């Protein structure tokens, strides 16, 4: 990997998400060498991925080059790499670009989509955990409408215009709301020769309310907002399979659709070499102690989604969201300073700042620790917070301009099929006519 | 294709570039049915593609949904399609989504990269005529630097950091200037552990000056600007091949590089079925008369790059640029109105508004018909004109913000490898660790 060996301890961080970046920032002024590995050269602001999928934003608005975030820090090294395994007894990480020795290793690998072993959904459904996946979904949605124009079969048209979203957490709810806004504001203009009133958005939830991690009042209000937008909500329904045409459930209920979006769960993105049975907690997360140390190791830590720190309030680990990841990353940075100065580390404690979700234009639900509210004001709070947490002044400006434009014009202009998802028509597209 | 047959004449336009869109706009108020076919669902503002390649802009800033441009026009139909052939005797166009009858057919297919039959360059070189190609080039440039970090071989590093641009027209010159700015402002910050002073930008031209379609004074000044930026200009050099590692030329001169960008020529993107020998002029363009009628046909027209209209000043057809395309498209729109009202058509005459090219920060060359100037003012003019010609208020705003930010910060933030070009590491990237 061509990284010089220095006398300062080397901390290898796997993953440049919220946890990894927060940690790296805290380490920037310490006497350590930091090596960050990620399979992308950018940090992704995941809470806005659904806006990439629905053509409201482009990737560069919610992605930020990792090298740029950390370019001011001396003794910081980034490598674009896929991690293959960790070998704790040798203190090395093996990757597709070679292996690297660590003094301390931090797993900040985040989470990936959890299909709960359902192969048919994994193969035929769409996920929305990364930018390429979100762009694929954008292409597919637009391709569906182009294809719907070409058929006389009403059944085929209905399937192409039916969007089935499984999982009504924030991602599912926000995507459903955005699709409903597109139906209302854009589709009838773009496709005047298609009866876009027949577009269906079905949101399926296994439990008895949407946004089940939020308060009951937020759930209730969100359901009301969604229903007003014409979203069909199905509660207590368990999706059991999808062959690319039919969604089956645990009852007689089925859906004919060309698009199933799976937002029903995530699981820790574990790394090979640490998969010992007794290390892995519920949700495929790695068990850590109150200092984010992986059980049984002094020199391996885990932060963010991948880390399961059992506490009284969260026996199975903190929620797999941005806030715990950011807080754990920061906290571990402070603990490293103590550790390297032979001081005892401090236990992590999570400060729950609350959670929120937006449901289309002028509508959001916000749960703060002591205050819950919904509607237009919540929507402004949602926007402000998301703008604030975006990295980079330019990103904030561009997102703000896009939101303002989209709001005023009831529009989203990035409805471009840059890379077709279905039947990519041409590899060397220049050799094609027209 | 599910397009209703009406009593008004049907005009089928193949291609949604400058020519096709200008024509469609002129037809919007006429008593005709317009069907536009394109293999993309967006119009591309090609003059700024090099800014997508170099991470200054995202695709949505220079692309615009065709459906949106024309959504206000009644009796207008867009279909996403690859044209396979035209059958003039049956008056139909065959495509991958079925065939369509036309009363009038307009070829607005534009141009594609001309490799002059050189297969090695076509296979191993990069082109920059479409958005996917420009994004591929962006990924490749960034991947080269990531790869250069991993090797101890100086030769390999040099090849990865050597950019060979063949063809010093506006595209080649603007790309060379942008790469030189990146070298100066960004690379040493992003890659502190790489000696980025060794980055080379080689611009190769077969003739004896760059920008040979512009005035000698513009060429001279552009060469001076480029040289000040550290670009190596090679004139009177003919590139003969590229095997992915070595660029060969008509002399002993060779270049070792991982990246050859081919901007040395374009050719008409002809359509099967009209390829009769005597119809095709120099540059693979279709011969048209002064009304843009394809030779030998009353009902088939061609506009823009694909059309070769021989005039006294342009015996081989007008320059293959935006302006002739826009003007021919508009003019044909007016001629259709006359034709359909049984009035004689008017011959096209080209009004040369001049041409321009920018060479990095604060530097551009502008040739107006009666006035030629270079430098900072030319650069402002270049920016103003390009902002003005972009379609859509939002695009202008977003491009303006990006340019202002990039200018103030010496930066370009879209340096993201969204879809790797070399060794795409993972198909289903979520199954990967890290």
UniProtKB/TrEMBL annotation, chains A, B:
The chain crosses the membrane at residues 376-393. Its EC number is 1.6.5.9. Coiled coil: none annotated. Residues 10-329 form the FAD/NAD(P)-binding domain. The keyword Phosphoprotein does not apply. Keywords: FAD, Flavoprotein, Membrane, NAD, Oxidoreductase, Transit peptide, Transmembrane, Transmembrane helix. The keyword Ribonucleoprotein does not apply. Residues 353-407 form the External alternative NADH-ubiquinone oxidoreductase-like C-terminal domain. It comes from the Bacteria. It catalyses: a quinone + NADH + H(+) = a quinol + NAD(+). PANTHER family: EXTERNAL NADH-UBIQUINONE OXIDOREDUCTASE 1, MITOCHONDRIAL-RELATED (PTHR43706:SF47), NADH DEHYDROGENASE (PTHR43706). Belongs to the NADH dehydrogenase family. This is NADH:ubiquinone reductase (non-electrogenic).
């Amino acid at each position: 990997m061509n990284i010089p060996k220095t006398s300062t301890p080397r901390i290898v961080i796997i993953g440049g998400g919220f946890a990894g970046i927060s940690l790296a920032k805290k380490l920037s002024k310490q006497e350590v060498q930091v090596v960050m590995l990620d399979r992308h050269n950018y940090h992704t602001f995941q809470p806005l991925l659904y806006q990439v999928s629905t053509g409201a934003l482009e990737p560069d608005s919610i992605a930020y080059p990792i090298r740029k975030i950390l370019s001011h820090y001396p003794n910081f090294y980034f490598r674009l790499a896929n991690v293959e395994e960790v070998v704790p007894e040798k203190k090395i990480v093996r990757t597709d670009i070679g292996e690297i020795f660590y003094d301390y290793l931090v797993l900040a690998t985040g989470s990936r989509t959890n299909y709960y072993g359902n192969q048919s959904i994994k193969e035929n459904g769409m996920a929305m955990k990364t930018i390429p996946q979100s762009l694929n979904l954008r292409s597919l949605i637009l391709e569906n409408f182009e294809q719907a124009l070409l058929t006389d079969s009403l059944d085929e048209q209905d399937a192409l215009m039916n969007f089935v979203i499984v999982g009504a957490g924030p991602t599912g709810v926000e995507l459903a709301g955005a699709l409903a806004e597109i139906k209302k504001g854009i589709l009838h203009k773009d496709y005047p020769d298609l009866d876009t009133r027949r577009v269906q958005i079905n949101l399926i939830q296994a439990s008895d309310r949407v946004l089940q991690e939020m308060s009951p009042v937020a759930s209730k209000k969100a359901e009301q907002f969604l229903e007003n937008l014409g979203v069909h909500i199905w509660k207590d329904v368990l999706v059991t399979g999808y062959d690319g045409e039919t969604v089956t459930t645990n009852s007689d209920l089925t859906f004919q659709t060309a698009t199933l979006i799976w937002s029903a769960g995530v699981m820790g993105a574990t790394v090979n070499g640490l998969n010992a049975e007794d290390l892995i907690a519920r949700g495929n997360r790695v068990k850590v102690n109150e200092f984010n140390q992986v059980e049984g190791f002094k020199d391996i830590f885990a932060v963010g989604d991948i880390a399961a720190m059992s506490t009284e309030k969260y026996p199975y680990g903190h929620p797999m969201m941005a806030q715990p990841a950011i807080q754990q990353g920061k906290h571990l940075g402070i603990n490293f300073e103590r550790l390297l100065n032979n001081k005892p580390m401090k236990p992590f404690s999570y400060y729950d700042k609350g959670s929120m979700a937006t449901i289309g234009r002028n509508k959001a639900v916000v749960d703060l620790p002591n205050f819950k509210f919904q509607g237009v004001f919540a929507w402004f709070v949602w926007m402000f917070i998301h703008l604030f947490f975006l990295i980079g002044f330019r990103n904030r400006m561009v997102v703000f301009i896009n939101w303002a434009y989209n709001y005023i014009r009831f529009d989203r202009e990035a409805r471009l099929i840059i890379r077709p998802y279905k039947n990519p028509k041409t590899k060397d597209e220049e050799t094609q006519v027209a």
